[in-house]
Amino acid sequence: MESSTTVLESQVDWLTCGVHTDAKQVELEHLAIGWAKPEMADGHRMVPFRLLGFEGWRAGRVRYGTRTTGGLLQLSGDLAAQHLGQLVGLADSISRVDLAVTCRTPVLQDGVAQRHYQEALAHLAAHPRAAMPWLVQNARNGETCYVGDRSSDWFLRVYNKQRQQEQVGDAKGQLHYAGCWRYELEVKGCPAELVANRLAESADTATDVQCAVHAHCRGHGFSPLFEHTGGTQLVGGFRRQSDYDTRLRWLTRSVAPAVKWMLEQDGRADVLRALDLGESSAT
What we know:
The chain contains 10 helices and 10 strands. By secondary structure, it is α+β, with helices and mostly antiparallel strands. The protein starts with 5 loop residues before the first strand and ends with a helix.
Protein backbone atom coordinates (compact mmCIF):
# COMPACT_ATOMS: atom_id res chain seq x y z
CA MET A 1 0.00 0.00 0.00
CA GLU A 2 1.39 3.41 -1.01
CA SER A 3 1.53 6.02 1.76
CA SER A 4 1.42 8.76 -0.90
CA THR A 5 -1.76 7.43 -2.49
CA THR A 6 -4.60 9.94 -2.74
CA VAL A 7 -8.25 8.91 -2.73
CA LEU A 8 -9.88 10.90 -5.53
CA GLU A 9 -13.42 9.50 -5.18
CA SER A 10 -15.19 7.36 -2.62
CA GLN A 11 -18.91 7.14 -3.23
CA VAL A 12 -21.99 5.22 -4.31
CA ASP A 13 -21.56 4.81 -8.07
CA TRP A 14 -24.74 2.94 -9.10
CA LEU A 15 -28.22 2.44 -7.71
CA THR A 16 -31.10 0.28 -8.95
CA CYS A 17 -34.41 0.66 -7.13
CA GLY A 18 -38.05 -0.22 -7.71
CA VAL A 19 -41.53 0.85 -6.61
CA HIS A 20 -44.70 -1.26 -6.59
CA THR A 21 -47.62 1.16 -6.28
CA ASP A 22 -49.17 3.54 -8.80
CA ALA A 23 -48.63 6.58 -6.58
CA LYS A 24 -44.95 5.84 -6.07
CA GLN A 25 -44.53 5.07 -9.75
CA VAL A 26 -45.81 8.54 -10.63
CA GLU A 27 -43.41 10.10 -8.12
CA LEU A 28 -40.46 8.04 -9.32
CA GLU A 29 -41.11 8.96 -12.95
CA HIS A 30 -41.35 12.64 -12.02
CA LEU A 31 -37.96 12.44 -10.29
CA ALA A 32 -36.41 10.52 -13.17
CA ILE A 33 -37.54 13.09 -15.74
CA GLY A 34 -36.22 15.92 -13.60
CA TRP A 35 -32.81 14.25 -13.28
CA ALA A 36 -32.71 13.39 -16.98
CA LYS A 37 -33.22 16.97 -18.19
CA PRO A 38 -29.67 18.14 -17.30
CA GLU A 39 -28.31 14.98 -18.93
CA MET A 40 -30.08 15.85 -22.17
CA ALA A 41 -28.92 19.46 -21.88
CA ASP A 42 -25.37 18.06 -21.82
CA GLY A 43 -25.98 16.33 -25.15
CA HIS A 44 -27.28 12.89 -24.13
CA ARG A 45 -30.18 11.72 -26.28
CA MET A 46 -33.17 9.93 -24.79
CA VAL A 47 -33.14 6.38 -26.17
CA PRO A 48 -35.23 3.25 -25.47
CA PHE A 49 -34.44 1.23 -22.35
CA ARG A 50 -35.50 -2.38 -21.65
CA LEU A 51 -34.59 -4.62 -18.74
CA LEU A 52 -36.30 -7.63 -17.13
CA GLY A 53 -39.67 -6.76 -18.65
CA PHE A 54 -39.38 -3.06 -17.82
CA GLU A 55 -39.65 -0.72 -20.78
CA GLY A 56 -38.89 2.97 -20.82
CA TRP A 57 -36.07 5.34 -21.68
CA ARG A 58 -32.45 6.14 -20.92
CA ALA A 59 -30.70 9.53 -20.95
CA GLY A 60 -27.08 9.64 -19.86
CA ARG A 61 -26.83 8.43 -16.28
CA VAL A 62 -30.61 7.99 -15.83
CA ARG A 63 -32.61 4.89 -16.82
CA TYR A 64 -36.32 4.50 -16.14
CA GLY A 65 -38.85 1.82 -17.08
CA THR A 66 -42.23 0.41 -16.08
CA ARG A 67 -44.14 -2.86 -16.21
CA THR A 68 -47.39 -4.05 -14.70
CA THR A 69 -45.81 -4.57 -11.25
CA GLY A 70 -44.29 -1.08 -10.93
CA GLY A 71 -41.39 1.12 -11.94
CA LEU A 72 -37.62 0.74 -12.06
CA LEU A 73 -34.99 3.48 -11.83
CA GLN A 74 -31.24 3.21 -12.31
CA LEU A 75 -28.80 6.02 -11.57
CA SER A 76 -25.05 5.92 -12.14
CA GLY A 77 -22.07 8.03 -11.13
CA ASP A 78 -22.59 11.20 -9.11
CA LEU A 79 -26.37 11.01 -9.52
CA ALA A 80 -26.50 7.75 -7.55
CA ALA A 81 -24.45 9.32 -4.77
CA GLN A 82 -26.47 12.55 -4.67
CA HIS A 83 -29.94 10.98 -4.59
CA LEU A 84 -29.34 7.84 -2.52
CA GLY A 85 -31.09 9.15 0.60
CA GLN A 86 -34.18 10.32 -1.27
CA LEU A 87 -34.56 7.06 -3.16
CA VAL A 88 -34.02 4.87 -0.10
CA GLY A 89 -36.97 6.68 1.48
CA LEU A 90 -39.18 6.21 -1.58
CA ALA A 91 -38.25 2.79 -2.98
CA ASP A 92 -40.01 -0.46 -2.12
CA SER A 93 -36.94 -2.43 -3.17
CA ILE A 94 -33.26 -1.80 -3.87
CA SER A 95 -31.69 -4.53 -5.96
CA ARG A 96 -28.23 -3.14 -6.64
CA VAL A 97 -25.81 -0.58 -5.22
CA ASP A 98 -22.22 -0.11 -6.36
CA LEU A 99 -19.46 1.33 -4.18
CA ALA A 100 -16.47 2.90 -5.94
CA VAL A 101 -13.10 4.10 -4.68
CA THR A 102 -10.73 5.77 -7.14
CA CYS A 103 -7.18 6.36 -5.96
CA ARG A 104 -4.16 8.06 -7.49
CA THR A 105 -0.47 7.26 -7.10
CA PRO A 106 2.24 9.82 -7.97
CA VAL A 107 3.23 7.72 -11.00
CA LEU A 108 0.77 5.37 -12.70
CA GLN A 109 1.44 1.79 -11.65
CA ASP A 110 0.80 -0.81 -14.31
CA GLY A 111 0.31 -4.37 -13.11
CA VAL A 112 -1.79 -3.65 -10.00
CA ALA A 113 -4.71 -5.76 -11.25
CA GLN A 114 -2.36 -8.62 -12.07
CA ARG A 115 -0.81 -8.41 -8.58
CA HIS A 116 -4.23 -8.45 -6.91
CA TYR A 117 -5.24 -11.40 -9.08
CA GLN A 118 -2.21 -13.41 -7.96
CA GLU A 119 -2.87 -12.53 -4.32
CA ALA A 120 -6.56 -13.47 -4.61
CA LEU A 121 -5.56 -16.71 -6.35
CA ALA A 122 -3.27 -17.59 -3.43
CA HIS A 123 -6.14 -16.79 -1.04
CA LEU A 124 -8.41 -19.12 -3.02
CA ALA A 125 -5.84 -21.91 -2.78
CA ALA A 126 -5.88 -21.58 1.01
CA HIS A 127 -9.66 -21.06 1.18
CA PRO A 128 -11.28 -23.22 -1.53
CA ARG A 129 -14.76 -21.79 -0.88
CA ALA A 130 -13.63 -18.21 -1.47
CA ALA A 131 -14.75 -16.21 -4.50
CA MET A 132 -13.01 -17.00 -7.77
CA PRO A 133 -10.63 -14.32 -9.13
CA TRP A 134 -9.97 -13.79 -12.83
CA LEU A 135 -7.89 -11.41 -14.90
CA VAL A 136 -8.49 -9.64 -18.22
CA GLN A 137 -5.66 -7.83 -20.06
CA ASN A 138 -5.24 -6.21 -23.45
CA ALA A 139 -2.39 -5.03 -25.68
CA ARG A 140 -2.72 -1.39 -24.54
CA ASN A 141 -1.81 -2.00 -20.89
CA GLY A 142 -5.45 -2.19 -19.88
CA GLU A 143 -6.10 -4.75 -17.17
CA THR A 144 -8.95 -5.66 -14.85
CA CYS A 145 -9.05 -8.07 -11.92
CA TYR A 146 -12.48 -9.51 -11.07
CA VAL A 147 -13.29 -11.30 -7.83
CA GLY A 148 -16.56 -13.23 -7.67
CA ASP A 149 -19.27 -14.05 -10.14
CA ARG A 150 -21.35 -11.32 -11.81
CA SER A 151 -24.55 -13.10 -10.76
CA SER A 152 -23.53 -13.26 -7.09
CA ASP A 153 -24.46 -10.73 -4.38
CA TRP A 154 -20.87 -9.45 -4.17
CA PHE A 155 -18.75 -8.75 -7.25
CA LEU A 156 -15.50 -6.76 -7.21
CA ARG A 157 -13.58 -5.30 -10.13
CA VAL A 158 -10.26 -3.45 -10.04
CA TYR A 159 -9.08 -1.68 -13.17
CA ASN A 160 -6.65 0.88 -14.51
CA LYS A 161 -8.82 4.00 -14.74
CA GLN A 162 -6.29 6.06 -16.70
CA ARG A 163 -5.86 3.35 -19.34
CA GLN A 164 -9.63 2.94 -19.57
CA GLN A 165 -10.04 6.66 -20.31
CA GLU A 166 -7.27 6.49 -22.90
CA GLN A 167 -8.96 3.61 -24.69
CA VAL A 168 -12.31 5.42 -24.96
CA GLY A 169 -10.58 8.56 -26.21
CA ASP A 170 -11.71 10.80 -23.36
CA ALA A 171 -9.01 13.50 -23.16
CA LYS A 172 -10.66 15.24 -20.21
CA GLY A 173 -11.01 11.93 -18.40
CA GLN A 174 -7.38 11.03 -19.05
CA LEU A 175 -6.28 14.23 -17.35
CA HIS A 176 -8.70 13.87 -14.45
CA TYR A 177 -7.82 10.21 -13.82
CA ALA A 178 -4.07 10.37 -14.47
CA GLY A 179 -2.31 7.79 -12.30
CA CYS A 180 -5.62 6.33 -11.05
CA TRP A 181 -6.93 2.87 -10.24
CA ARG A 182 -10.62 2.18 -9.61
CA TYR A 183 -12.01 -0.36 -7.12
CA GLU A 184 -15.72 -1.08 -7.67
CA LEU A 185 -17.79 -3.32 -5.42
CA GLU A 186 -21.14 -4.33 -6.91
CA VAL A 187 -23.66 -5.39 -4.26
CA LYS A 188 -26.96 -7.04 -5.22
CA GLY A 189 -29.88 -8.89 -3.65
CA CYS A 190 -30.67 -8.56 0.04
CA PRO A 191 -27.23 -7.12 0.93
CA ALA A 192 -27.82 -4.23 -1.52
CA GLU A 193 -30.81 -3.01 0.47
CA LEU A 194 -28.92 -3.29 3.75
CA VAL A 195 -25.91 -1.40 2.38
CA ALA A 196 -28.06 1.32 0.79
CA ASN A 197 -29.99 1.90 4.00
CA ARG A 198 -26.79 2.02 6.05
CA LEU A 199 -25.20 4.55 3.70
CA ALA A 200 -28.34 6.69 3.60
CA GLU A 201 -28.05 7.04 7.39
CA SER A 202 -24.28 7.61 7.38
CA ALA A 203 -22.75 10.83 8.65
CA ASP A 204 -19.68 10.21 6.47
CA THR A 205 -20.58 8.24 3.36
CA ALA A 206 -17.17 8.59 1.73
CA THR A 207 -15.38 7.10 4.75
CA ASP A 208 -17.87 4.26 5.04
CA VAL A 209 -17.56 3.39 1.35
CA GLN A 210 -13.77 3.42 1.55
CA CYS A 211 -13.85 1.25 4.65
CA ALA A 212 -16.23 -1.28 3.08
CA VAL A 213 -14.35 -1.67 -0.20
CA HIS A 214 -11.02 -1.97 1.63
CA ALA A 215 -12.45 -4.65 3.94
CA HIS A 216 -13.86 -6.61 0.98
CA CYS A 217 -10.46 -6.61 -0.72
CA ARG A 218 -8.71 -7.72 2.47
CA GLY A 219 -11.28 -10.45 2.89
CA HIS A 220 -10.17 -11.87 -0.47
CA GLY A 221 -6.47 -11.86 0.23
CA PHE A 222 -5.09 -8.50 -0.87
CA SER A 223 -4.73 -4.90 0.27
CA PRO A 224 -5.86 -2.14 -2.12
CA LEU A 225 -3.67 0.86 -2.92
CA PHE A 226 -5.66 3.10 -0.58
CA GLU A 227 -5.79 3.13 3.20
CA HIS A 228 -8.47 1.61 5.38
CA THR A 229 -10.23 4.43 7.22
CA GLY A 230 -12.64 4.36 10.11
CA GLY A 231 -14.14 1.37 11.84
CA THR A 232 -17.67 1.33 10.50
CA GLN A 233 -18.90 -1.76 8.67
CA LEU A 234 -21.79 -1.22 6.28
CA VAL A 235 -23.23 -4.68 6.78
CA GLY A 236 -21.76 -5.49 10.15
CA GLY A 237 -23.64 -8.39 11.69
CA PHE A 238 -25.45 -9.19 8.44
CA ARG A 239 -24.75 -12.90 8.60
CA ARG A 240 -25.67 -12.94 12.28
CA GLN A 241 -29.08 -11.34 11.74
CA SER A 242 -32.14 -13.47 12.18
CA ASP A 243 -32.81 -15.28 8.91
CA TYR A 244 -36.52 -15.11 9.74
CA ASP A 245 -36.58 -11.31 10.12
CA THR A 246 -34.41 -10.72 7.06
CA ARG A 247 -36.49 -12.93 4.81
CA LEU A 248 -39.77 -11.55 6.16
CA ARG A 249 -38.65 -8.02 5.30
CA TRP A 250 -37.63 -9.15 1.81
CA LEU A 251 -40.98 -10.87 1.28
CA THR A 252 -42.90 -7.81 2.46
CA ARG A 253 -41.05 -5.28 0.29
CA SER A 254 -40.07 -7.25 -2.80
CA VAL A 255 -42.37 -10.27 -3.21
CA ALA A 256 -45.73 -9.32 -1.68
CA PRO A 257 -46.64 -6.64 -4.29
CA ALA A 258 -46.05 -9.05 -7.18
CA VAL A 259 -48.01 -11.84 -5.46
CA LYS A 260 -50.89 -9.45 -4.72
CA TRP A 261 -51.06 -8.42 -8.37
CA MET A 262 -51.06 -12.05 -9.55
CA LEU A 263 -53.86 -12.92 -7.12
CA GLU A 264 -55.88 -10.03 -8.52
CA GLN A 265 -55.44 -11.63 -11.95
CA ASP A 266 -56.92 -14.90 -10.65
CA GLY A 267 -53.46 -16.46 -10.56
CA ARG A 268 -53.73 -18.19 -7.17
CA ALA A 269 -52.90 -21.62 -8.58
CA ASP A 270 -49.86 -20.25 -10.42
CA VAL A 271 -48.61 -18.49 -7.29
CA LEU A 272 -48.91 -21.62 -5.17
CA ARG A 273 -47.18 -23.67 -7.85
CA ALA A 274 -44.31 -21.16 -8.18
CA LEU A 275 -43.80 -21.09 -4.41
CA ASP A 276 -44.07 -24.89 -4.19
CA LEU A 277 -47.01 -24.59 -1.80
CA GLY A 278 -50.02 -26.88 -1.83
CA GLU A 279 -53.53 -25.64 -1.10
CA SER A 280 -53.31 -27.12 2.38
CA SER A 281 -50.09 -25.24 3.10
CA ALA A 282 -51.63 -21.89 2.22
CA THR A 283 -54.77 -22.23 4.33
